[in-house]
Design the sequence.
C-alpha cells in the first residue's frame, strides 16, 4: 500500500528551508567568513559568551519620597501662614525621616483653628495625603499608599530612562537597561564588550543632582565644630553639608550650614555645556535654567543680595559665592580641580537629567573577552562530540532505522537554531548546554518508537503494521515525557536570570521541534522506505 | 543488535538491596551536608567578591596570599581553579567584607595587589605610564595607540580606523587565540604592523596576569536568589504532582514525587561530598533532572497502567515486574544516550559548566535508578499496606482506566 507522501515531503523541505534562512538571514556571500558573519547577526551571543559587564542596581526610592515630602513640608508652613495661621518655627517636621519618609507632622497647632487648618490642608494636600489630627495639638499627614507607590514607580521609570541615555551617550553597543525583579525597584544593566566598568559605573551612578541653596553659616572645620557653633542641633529647615574634595581653600573638607530647601533644583536645569574659565583657563560647566525656575531665581537673588549661595552637587558643596546681582537664568560650576573629562561627564550628566534618587549596586559580574571565547569553543566542542556519539550509537544499534533517527536529529537542530534566529533570542553558555541536552532527550522519542516497532515485529506483525502500531502507541508517552520537561523549563524561565533563561528557551524550543521531527518526519521517512519495499519485506531496525 | 532480549528480572524481589543502596548514598550525603563539607554554595548565593585570574606561570599560592594580605585583604582564600595546565586561581573576598558601599573596592584592591606586589614586571612598571598589555581593554588600547601614533598618521578618522583595526587584531590574538595572556610582545608581529609592535615593545609591558572574570554579589541579592531557587524547586514538584494526579491517580503522583525527592537529595549530597559549589545554573540542572526523572517514571507508570487494564488476575507485584522488564530496554537506552551527551558536556564543556554538568551526570543515573527502585516498589507497598488494613486493592486489575 503506497502512501502519498508528496505533500508531507514538501512540508518538511519547506520547514528546513525556512529555518536555514532563519539561521543565516540572507547571506551577503557564501564564503565561510561571510556565512559566519550573517549567522552572528541573527543569533546574538549572551554576555557570558561575548564578554561584558552585568549590573544590578537598587533605586533608593525612599529618597524620592523623602524629597517630595521635604518640599511639601516646607510649603505647608507657608500655606498655613498665608491663611492667617502662624506657627512657631520648626513646627512642621518629619518625625522619622529615615524609616518613614512619607509622614509629616505639624506640632503646636492652635486648637481653636482646627476647622481652618483642616480645610487648608485638605484643599492643598488632600489628594496626596491622609490628614488626621492627633493629641497634643498635632496634625499628621501620611502620604496615601497609592500616591506613594505611584511616586516610587515614577522614580524607577525615570531612573531607567536616565541610565539608558547616559549609557547610550557613552557609546556602548547593544546595551540592556530594564526593570529587574518586579516590585523591588531594581534595574538590570548589561553592557556587552565593556571589560573595565569603573568609568561607566561612575557615570551611571552619579545622581548629578545639582541644587543651589542659601548658605546660613560656615565654613566650619568639621561636622562636630559646626554643630557646636550653631547651638548643638540642626534646625529643621537647615542641614549640614560637607564640601567636595579639593573645593575648600584650606585643603581638607569644610562644612556649611545651608537652608534645607533648594532655590534651584534638578528639574530646573534646562541644559549645560562645558566652557573654560576666562580668568584661570580651567574647565568649567555652564548651566541654563528653565524660564519658570529663572523667574523664581531672579526674585530670590534680587531679595538676597550680598548673602552667600552654595552650589551643591550630589549633596556636596561645590562652590560658595556671594550674590552680587540678580541672576536670572544661568550660572557656572567651577573649581574642585575639575579635569576636562570630569567637566565633560558633568555636562553630559546635567544634560541627560538627574536621577530622582540615588542608586546602589547589588551585583556586578564582569566576563573578560578571553573567557567568553574559551566558553564558546568548549561549548561547541562538547555539543559536537555529544551529537556524534549519539548519532554513531544509533547507527550501530538500529542499523537502517538509525539513519532515520540521525536525520531527524539533524533536522531538529536546524529547526532549533532557526527558531532562535527568528526570535532573536540570545545564546548563552547554558543555552549551548540546552542544545546538547535536547539532542540527548530528543533521541529518546526515536528510541521509544523503535523499541515498540521491534516489539511488534517480534510479536509477528508485518513491517508496515509494526511501524503503524509503533508510532500509534508511542505518541501518548512521547507527549507526556515532553510535557514534564517543558513544564520544568517553563518554571526555570520564570524564575531564572539571563543565562538560565537561555537554557530554558533552547531546551523548550528543542523539545517542541523534537515533537515534529521524531514523529512526523521520522514517519515520513519510514513510509518512504516502506513504499520502496515489497509487502512483507523486512526493514532494517 | 539488541542488548535486552526478553528480560525476566524480579525487580521487586530485590527491593531490599535497592533500599540499602539508596540509604547508603542518601545517608552519606546527609552526613556530609551536616558535618563535613556542609552545603557548598557559589557566590551567587553567599554574596561576596570572586575574582578569577589567569597567570602566565604556575601560580605561587603562598606569594599570592601574602600579596593580598599586604594590600589589606585579610583572610582572602586563594585556590587554584580547573586543570593545573590553565594556571588559574580564584581569589575570594567573603560577604562580610563586601558591604554594599564597598562593593567595588574589593576587586580594585585585588587587581592593585596583583600589579604592585605579585607581578615582577608590574612592580617595576606600575605608575610609570606604560601600558599593561595583558589587561588593557579595547577602548584603552585604541586610545593608547591613537595617542602614541607609531605610524605617524596624525589624528584623522582614517588614523583612528587603522589603529582600531590593529587593536582588534592584537586583542583577537590575546583573547581568542591565547586565552587572555600574551607570551611576548614581539610575538605580536604576526598580527600587527611592525611600527606598532616596536612602539609597544618600548612603551608597554606584560604584567603576566589577566583577570578572566569578576563576580560581585551584594548580600541582598544572594538571599533573594536563595528564596527564588527554593520557590522554583517547590513549584516544580507541586506542578508535577498535580499533572500526575490528573493523568493517573494520586498514588502515582505521590510515588513519583518521592522518587524525585530521593534523586534531588542524593544529587545535593553528591555535591557536598565532592565539595562542588552550587550556583544558579546548578539549580537549573536540578530542575531539569526533576523533569527528566519524572519522564522516566511516567514511562514505567504508563506501561503499568496499560497492563492493569489488560490483565485479569495477575498479582500486582508480578505485573509491575513485567512492566519494568518490558520497558527496560527503552529506559536503559534513553538514559544511556542522554548520559553520553551529558558526559561529553562534563568532560569537554569547560570549568564554567562543571557544576551544571556534574548535577546532570549524577541526576540522570539516579533518575533512571529511582523509577525502577523507588517509584514502582512504592506502588506495590501502598497496595499491600491498604490490603493489610482491610481495604480493597488500590490498583485493581482489569478495570478501565481513564
Sequence:
Amino acid at each position: 500500500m503506497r502512501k502519498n507522501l508528496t505533500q508531507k515531503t514538501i512540508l518538511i523541505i519547506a520547514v528546513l528551508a525556512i529555518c536555514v534562512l532563519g539561521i543565516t538571514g540572507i547571506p551577503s556571500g557564501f564564503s565561510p567568513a561571510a556565512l559566519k558573519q550573517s549567522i552572528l547577526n541573527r543569533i546574538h551571543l549572551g554576555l557570558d559568551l561575548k564578554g561584558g559587564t552585568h549590573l544590578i542596581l537598587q533605586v533608593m526610592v525612599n529618597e524620592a519620597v523623602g524629597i517630595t515630602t521635604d518640599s511639601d513640608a516646607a510649603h505647608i508652613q507657608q500655606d498655613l501662614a498665608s491663611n492667617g495661621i502662624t506657627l512657631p518655627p520648626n513646627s512642621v517636621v518629619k518625625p522619622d525621616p529615615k524609616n518613614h519618609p512619607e509622614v509629616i507632622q505639624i506640632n503646636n497647632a492652635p486648637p481653636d483653628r482646627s476647622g481652618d487648618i483642616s480645610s487648608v490642608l485638605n484643599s492643598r494636600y488632600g489628594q496626596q495625603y491622609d490628614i488626621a489630627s492627633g493629641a497634643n495639638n498635632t496634625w499628621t499627614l501620611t502620604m496615601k499608599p497609592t500616591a506613594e507607590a505611584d511616586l516610587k514607580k515614577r522614580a524607577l521609570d525615570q531612573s531607567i530612562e536616565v541610565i539608558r541615555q547616559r549609557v547610550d551617550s557613552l557609546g556602548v553597543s547593544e546595551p540592556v537597561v530594564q526593570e529587574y525583579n518586579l516590585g523591588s525597584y531594581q534595574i538590570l544593566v548589561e553592557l556587552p564588550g565593556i571589560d573595565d566598568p569603573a568609568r561607566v559605573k561612575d557615570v551611571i551612578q552619579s545622581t548629578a543632582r545639582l541644587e543651589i541653596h542659601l548658605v546660613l553659616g560656615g565654613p566650619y572645620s568639621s561636622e562636630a565644630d559646626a554643630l557646636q557653633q550653631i547651638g548643638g542641633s540642626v534646625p529643621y529647615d537647615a542641614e549640614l553639608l560637607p564640601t567636595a574634595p579639593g573645593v575648600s581653600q584650606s585643603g581638607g573638607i569644610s562644612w556649611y550650614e545651608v537652608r534645607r530647601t533648594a532655590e534651584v533644583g534638578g528639574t530646573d536645569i534646562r541644559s549645560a555645556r562645558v566652557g573654560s574659565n576666562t580668568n584661570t583657563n580651567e574647565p568649567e560647566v555652564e548651566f541654563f535654567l528653565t524660564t519658570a525656575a529663572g523667574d523664581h531665581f531672579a526674585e530670590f537673588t534680587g531679595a538676597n543680595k550680598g548673602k552667600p549661595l552654595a552650589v551643591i552637587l550630589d549633596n556636596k558643596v561645590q562652590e560658595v559665592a556671594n550674590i552680587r546681582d540678580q541672576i536670572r537664568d544661568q550660572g557656572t560650576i567651577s573649581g574642585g580641580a575639575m579635569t576636562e573629562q570630569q567637566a565633560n561627564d558633568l555636562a553630559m550628566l546635567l544634560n541627560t537629567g538627574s536621577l530622582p534618587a540615588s542608586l546602589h549596586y547589588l551585583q556586578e559580574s564582569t566576563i573578560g573577552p578571553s573567557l567568553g571565547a574559551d566558553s564558546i569553543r568548549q561549548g561547541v566542542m562538547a555539543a559536537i562530540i555529544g551529537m556524534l556519539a549519539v548519532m554513531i550509537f544509533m547507527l550501530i544499534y538500529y542499523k537502517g532505522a538509525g539513519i532515520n533517527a540521525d536525520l531527524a536529529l539533524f533536522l531538529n537542530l536546524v529547526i532549533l537554531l532557526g527558531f532562535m534566529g527568528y526570535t532573536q533570542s540570545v545564546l548563552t553558555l547554558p543555552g549551548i548546554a540546552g542544545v546538547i541536552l535536547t539532542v540527548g532527550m530528543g533521541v529518546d522519542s526515536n528510541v521509544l518508537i523503535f523499541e515498540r516497532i521491534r516489539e511488534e515485529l517480534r510479536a509477528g506483525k508485518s513491517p508496515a503494521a509494526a511501524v503503524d502500531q509503533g508510532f500509534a502507541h508511542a505518541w501518548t508517552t512521547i507527549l507526556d515525557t515532553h510535557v514534564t520537561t517543558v513544564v520544568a523549563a517553563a518554571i526555570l524561565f520564570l524564575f531564572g536570570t539571563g543565562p538560565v533563561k537561555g537554557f530554558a528557551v533552547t531546551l523548550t524550543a528543542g523539545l517542541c521541534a523534537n515533537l515534529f521531527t521524531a514523529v512526523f518526519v521520522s514517519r515520513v521517512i519510514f513510509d518512504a522506505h516502506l513504499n520502496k519495499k515489497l509487502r512483507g519485506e523486512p526493514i532494517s531496525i | 543488535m539488541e542488548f535486552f532480549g526478553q528480560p525476566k528480572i524480579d525487580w521487586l524481589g530485590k527491593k531490599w538491596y535497592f533500599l540499602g543502596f539508596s540509604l547508603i548514598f542518601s545517608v552519606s550525603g546527609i552526613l556530609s551536608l551536616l558535618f563535613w563539607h556542609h552545603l557548598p554554595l557559589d557566590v551567587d548565593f553567599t554574596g561576596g567578591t570572586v575574582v578569577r585570574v589567569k597567570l602566565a606561570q604556575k601560580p605561587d599560592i603562598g606569594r599570592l596570599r601574602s600579596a593580598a594580605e599586604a594590600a589589606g585583604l585579610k583572610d582572602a582564600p586563594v585556590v587554584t581553579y580547573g586543570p593545573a595546565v590553565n594556571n588559574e586561581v580564584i581569589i575570594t573576598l567573603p560577604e562580610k567584607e563586601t558591604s554594599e558601599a564597598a562593593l567595588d573596592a574589593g576587586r580594585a584592591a585585588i587587581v592593585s595587589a596583583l600589579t604592585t606586589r605579585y607581578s615582577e614586571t608590574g612592580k617595576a612598571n606600575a605608575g610609570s605610564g606604560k601600558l599593561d598589555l595583558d589587561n588593557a581593554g579595547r577602548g584603552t588600547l585604541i586610545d593608547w595607540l591613537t595617542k602614541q601614533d607609531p605610524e605617524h598618521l596624525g589624528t584623522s578618522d582614517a588614523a583612528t580606523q587603522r589603529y582600531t583595526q590593529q587593536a582588534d587584531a592584537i586583542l583577537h590574538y590575546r583573547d581568542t587565540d591565547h586565552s587572555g595572556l600574551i607570551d611576548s610582545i614581539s610575538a605580536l608581529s604576526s598580527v600587527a604592523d611592525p611600527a606598532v609592535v616596536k612602539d609597544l615593545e618600548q612603551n608597554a609591558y606584560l604584567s603576566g596576569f589577566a583577570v578572566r572574570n569578576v563576580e560581585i554579589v551584594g548580600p541582598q541579592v544572594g538571599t533573594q536568589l536563595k528564596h527564588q531557587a527554593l520557590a522554583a524547586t517547590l513549584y516544580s514538584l507541586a506542578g508535577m504532582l498535580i499533572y500526575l494526579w490528573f493523568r493517573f491517580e494520586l498514588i502515582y503522583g505521590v510515588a513519583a514525587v518521592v522518587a524525585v525527592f530521593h534523586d534531588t537529595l542524593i544529587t545535593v549530597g553528591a555535591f557536598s561530598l565532592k565539595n562542588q559549589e552550587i550556583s544558579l545554573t546548578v539549580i537549573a540542572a536540578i530542575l531539569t533532572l526533576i523533569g527528566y526523572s519524572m519522564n522516566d517514571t511516567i514511562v514505567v507508570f504508563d506501561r503499568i497502567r496499560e497492563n492493569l487494564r489488560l490483565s485479569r488476575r495477575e498479582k500486582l507485584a508480578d505485573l509491575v515486574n513485567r512492566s519494568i522488564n518490558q520497558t527496560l530496554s527503552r529506559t536503559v537506552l534513553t538514559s544511556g544516550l542522554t548520559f553520553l551527551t551529558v558526559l561529553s558536556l562534563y568532560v569537554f564543556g569547560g570549568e564554567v559548566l562543571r557544576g551544571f554538568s556534574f548535577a546532570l551526570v549524577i541526576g540522570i543515573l539516579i533518575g533512571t535508578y529511582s523509577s525502577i527502585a523507588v517509584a514502582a516498589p512504592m506502588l506495590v507497598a501502598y497496595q499491600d499496606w491498604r490490603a493489610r488494613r482491610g481495604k480493597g486493592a488500590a490498583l485493581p486489575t482489569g478495570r478501565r482506566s481513564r
